[in-house]
Design goal:
Number of strands: 13
CATH topology of the largest domain: Rossmann fold
Strand content: 15-25%
Oligomer: single chain
Helix content: 40-55%
Structural class: alpha/beta
Number of helices: 15
Number of domains: 2
CATH architecture of the largest domain: 3-Layer(aba) Sandwich
Strand order of the largest sheet: 3-2-1-4-5-6-7
Distance between the termini: 32 Å
Length: 386
């Protein structure tokens, strides 16, 4: 009996942690011989070049003139059903409850119960969208009608259960890194473009939304650079960029801060850093902290959401209360001025990232969930992590 699966994956294809995880998972599954079909309105940006067992199906929105707004959700549901029928998919794995899990529910109604649906909750579908009373019932329906539901942190599971009164079990399946991609790179030459040999580098990577508290990053840096020669690198773009630039200019820090814009090769970029700054107000997991950890870079962060499940305080980074920039600055200075401590943190980061969050282990967890909902025996393949 062929134990390989035919899996449809839908995610937001543009920049974002959920899209990254969904795409990387699909690639890992394809490497194991599973047939993976991405169903989205554009090719996921991390999909890259041609890869065996991976297929892409574009969702085209009907522009019929009576529609005031293009009905993307209905077009997606229809495409899911079409692909499921034509490719004989075993299941749909959708990332985000709205609209993807709702669309998968509709597709299943069209195809039949033989098509299974696995939904992964990533964060804002619960922490933001589920706060809207007009969407709560829809999100609850999508979760309850899925054959399996996973979430990327225990904190997200807690919030989902409490906010939506969910009674069904939710599997904890953490995000992961591909250890073949995320490891300490030689970034010495790149580092010289931004900092002198005696300067340390603080880095923040995000979409610069208010929830990321980028102003706190600037304030922490202001305190740190008064005691330690340092530079601050921002990676990404977003709505808070003008506010950040104004604050930096107001503090007279223009010559100490660099904006690198969006970058694809995060492992190379992040390897320049001595610490990653993640003072978020909400963070269901904190994928960027895991990517930094895998490159040997500790995190200075907040005790928000799932961050404490990832960053071990006093071992792989330091965590402070949200908005406590003084504590964050003190912890940063401690790391930047103690070479022995920094080396210990670096080794702890590498060990934790490559062992506890490695691609093989998390991929295997998802495979177990797939076979479970299909009522099939799980192949006895042990993941290799180290």
């Amino acid at each position: 009996m062929d134990k390989k699966l035919k899996i449809g994956i839908t995610c937001y294809p543009s920049l974002g942690g959920s899209g990254v995880v969904a795409t990387e998972l699909g690639k890992l599954l394809a490497e194991q011989g599973h047939q993976v079909h991405f169903i989205a309105n554009s090719i996921p940006f991390r999909l890259g070049t041609f890869q065996k067992n991976i297929f892409y199906h574009e969702v085209e929105v009907n522009d019929y003139y009576v529609f005031r707004y293009p009905p993307y959700d209905l077009s997606l549901a229809t495409k899911m059903a079409q692909v499921a029928k034509s490719q004989q998919l075993d299941l749909l794995h959708v990332h985000y409850a709205v609209p993807h899990a709702v669309c998968a529910f509709l597709a299943k109604q069209m195809v039949g119960d033989g098509l299974k649906v696995v939904t992964t909750l990533h964060g804002t579908d619960i922490t933001v969208l589920a706060q809207d009373e007009s969407l709560k019932d829809l999100i609850r329906l999508a979760i309850n009608e899925s054959d399996a539901v996973t979430a990327v942190s225990q904190d997200l599971i807690r919030e989902t259960v409490e906010l939506l009164d969910i009674q069904r079990p939710i599997d904890l399946t953490y995000n992961f890194i591909d250890k073949r991609i995320y490891y300490p790179r030689d970034a010495a030459s790149l580092r010289r473009d931004f900092a002198t040999p005696d300067e340390k580098i603080l880095m923040h990577i995000s979409n610069f939304r208010p929830v990321k508290r980028t102003q706190d990053v600037v304030e922490v840096f202001r305190q740190v650079q008064e005691q330690v020669p340092a530079k601050l690198l921002f990676v990404g773009e977003g709505p808070d960029l003008p506010k950040m630039q104004w604050k930096i200019n107001d503090l007279g820090l223009n010559d100490k801060v660099h904006f690198l814009g969006k970058q694809d090769d995060i492992a190379q970029v992040i390897s320049m850093a001595d610490v990653l700054m993640l003072p978020s107000e909400k963070e269901s997991f904190g994928l960027v902290a895991l990517e930094a950890m895998a490159c040997g870079v500790p995190t200075i962060g907040s005790q928000a959401g799932g961050i404490p499940e990832l960053v071990l305080h006093g071992k792989t980074g330091y965590l402070s209360a949200i908005g406590d920039t003084q504590s964050m600055a003190e912890n940063t200075i401690r790391l930047l001025t103690d070479d022995r401590l920094a080396a210990e943190f670096r080794e702890a980061c590498l060990q934790r990232a490559h062992h506890d969050f490695c691609n093989d282990a998390i991929r295997h967890e998802y495979e177990q969930i797939y076979y479970r909902v299909l009522g099939r025996e799980v192949p006895n393949l042990k993941p290799v992590c180290g």
